Amino acid sequence: ALRGGHDGLEVIRPLLGEAASVVRPGGLVAIEIQYDQGEVVEKLFREAGLESISRHADHEGHDRVVMGRRPE
After folding, report:
1. Model pLDDT, residue 31
2. What's the rounded Cα separation, in Å, for the pair 19 and 16?
3. Which of 9, 10, 50, 53 is the least crowded, having the fewest Cβ atoms under 10 Å away?
4. CA–CA dist 12, 2 (Å, integer)
5. Cβ density class 34-66: b for 16+ within 10 Å, e for less
6. How far is residue 5 from each of residues 8, 26, 58, 66, 71, measured CA to CA in Å?
7. Which of 25, 20, 31 is nearest to 64 (CA)?
8. DSSP readout, 2-66?
9. Who contacts 2 (Cβ-Cβ below 8 Å, separation ≥6)?
10. Is the pLDDT of residue 43 over 70?
């Protein structure tokens, strides 16, 4: 686990901020999240310009991964 700062997102925000410049068009971005961050991380994906965003649950039904694609 990484130290994510006061809200747990201090690692995720810069990663998504760079996604458009490092992921090929049509490429997939997937980030593992804390169980209660799905909604806010999905919003960050949208703000980063990613599309086809989806959340995926772990075996207990908690959001665990958010995925999205860079537009073509």
Report:
1. 94
2. 5
3. 10
4. 10
5. beebbeebbebbeebebeebebeeeeeeebbeb
6. 5, 30, 23, 19, 30
7. 31
8. ---TTTT-TTHHHHHHHHHHHSPTT-EEEEE--TT-HHHHHHHHHHTT-EEEEEEE-TTS-EEEE
9. 11
10. yes
Query: Would you say how long the chain is, in residues?
Result: 72
Instruction: Judge whether 63 and 33 are in contact, CB under 8 Å.
Output: yes
Question: Residue 65 in contact with residue 56, Cβ under 8 Å?
Answer: yes
Q: Whole-number mean pLDDT of the chain?
A: 90
Question: CB–CB of 57/67 below 8 Å?
Answer: no
Segment 7-37, tens digit of pLDDT: 778 889 999 999 878 999 999 999 999 999 9
Report the pLDDT value the prediction gives residue 19, as an integer from 0 to 100: 86
